[in-house]
UniProtKB/TrEMBL annotation:
GO terms for biological process: fatty acid beta-oxidation. The keyword Ion transport does not apply. Residues 135-228 form the Acyl-CoA oxidase/dehydrogenase middle domain. This is Acyl-CoA dehydrogenase. Residues 20-130 form the Acyl-CoA dehydrogenase/oxidase N-terminal domain.
Length: 394
């Protein structure tokens, strides 16, 4: 017998692909995020401050260890569960989800994928427990999309020490991270290498970037490295070329697609709730054709996004997911997300530009999600090369 129409954002029931235990765990996490994290979100975003009490709250959930079970609770989670978890985090607050993603996906992921066993054992237990917070320093003031070929930060070998010089920009968690994974070009062989730099290292300075209109809670930093000395023991032993760096980004790029989904889902939920309850001309505006048209377009986008990211995670779980598929997912979902938040803000009318109704924050934050981890244009070129066999990169 057909199921009745469901107003929820998961209109086609993709969550049914999870096990009963996984759905129960996600529901418990969602309730915790709603009660413990969401109340911090709007105030922190408005003030452009980081709510440090959130770290302890995240630590209680143990989320940082989920992707690395040997350093977490020992219980492996599937790729699909990880995707839904990312969606839930972003559905509550994209800024705090970025804090978590930078720490867990980029910083811990770099050490897990590029470090020696000794390095993993040295750093990851405290990072999984969130006793130490990580950051990922790749982007530079003059090198965003072009950072692979245009990286200016250098690493010079001096005996058992490396000397780092250069600058990084847009480094999430950079103002307070205990460990920063810094990417630099070896002056001897011109290859890119990774280094773990501790907070307080002489010559390392981090300055908060002010005046942002998106992800305001995220403490992005401008970082300067002036003769920073790093022991060989703190160079990530498995990172020898930019291809190794790109492998980290390929893993997290699919995560950004789930992030975009979470933002779009929240925008739709807020818009639907508002449409059902907002009364104009003597009736809820949800009963007007043009409002229903906006909601249905949003739901269509979300359903298409669900289909793409779920299939991507299934492929990754089977060891078949490619960097090109992740690039297409990132480009497609962030574009559809951008449409969704714009339609949602439109539905709210004037109320859509104030924080009281929450949609303004998601509308602004979507612009950052659309831009980072490879712009739409760069990801398009990655996919374009895969389908034509011709590189259009300059």
């Amino acid at each position: 017998m057909p199921k009745p129409a469901n107003p929820a954002s998961d209109f086609f029931g993709f969550a049914d692909l999870l096990s009963d235990a996984e759905r129960a765990e996600l529901a418990a996490i969602r309730d915790y995020l709603e009660s413990e994290i969401k109340p911090l979100a709007n105030t922190a975003w408005d003030r452009a401050e980081f709510p440090f009490e959130a770290i302890e709250k995240f630590a209680k959930l143990g989320l940082a260890g989920y992707a690395y079970p040997e350093y977490g609770d020992g219980r492996p989670r599937g790729e699909l569960f990880s995707g839904f978890l990312s969606m839930e985090l972003n559905r509550v607050d994209p800024s705090l989800a970025v804090f978590s993603g930078v720490h867990t996906g980029l910083a811990m992921g770099s050490i897990y994928g590029g470090g020696s066993q000794e390095q993993r054992d040295r750093w990851l237990p405290d990072m999984a427990a969130m006793k130490k917070i990580g950051a990922f320093a790749l982007t530079e003031p003059e090198g965003g999309s072009d950072v692979a070929g245009g990286m200016r930060t250098t690493a010079r070998r001096d005996g058992d020490t490396w000397i780092l010089n250069g600058a990084k920009r847009w480094i999430g968690n950079g103002t307070f991270a205990d460990l920063v994974v810094v990417w630099a070009r070896d002056t001897a062989d011109n290859s890119v290498k990774g280094f773990v730099v501790p907070k307080g290292a002489p010559g390392f300075t981090a300055t908060k970037i002010e005046g942002k209109i998106a992800l305001r809670t995220v403490q992005n930093a401008d970082i300067v490295l002036d003769e920073v000395r790093v022991p060989e023991a703190d160079r990530l032993q498995g990172i020898n070329t930019f291809r190794d760096t790109a492998a980290v980004l390929a893993r997290t790029r699919g995560g950004v697609a789930w992030q975009a989904l979470g933002v779009a889902v929240r925008a739709y939920e807020l818009a639907r709730e508002y449409a059902v309850n907002r009364v104009q001309f003597g009736r809820p505006i949800g009963g007007f054709q043009m409002i229903q048209d906006l909601l249905v377009k949003m739901l269509g986008n979300i359903t298409a996004m669900f289909g793409m990211v779920v299939r991507l995670n299934q492929l990754v779980a089977a060891g078949e997911g490619s960097a090109e598929q992740a690039a297409l997912a990132k480009a497609f979902t962030t574009t559809r997300m951008r449409e969704c938040v714009a339609w949602a803000r439109e539905l709210f009318g004037g109320n859509g530009i104030v924080l009281d109704y929450e949609i303004a924050k998601f509308f602004a934050d979507a612009e950052a999600v659309y831009s980072f981890e490879g712009s739409r244009e760069m990801n398009t070129l990655i996919v374009g090369k895969a389908i034509t066999g011709h590189s259009a990169f300059v």
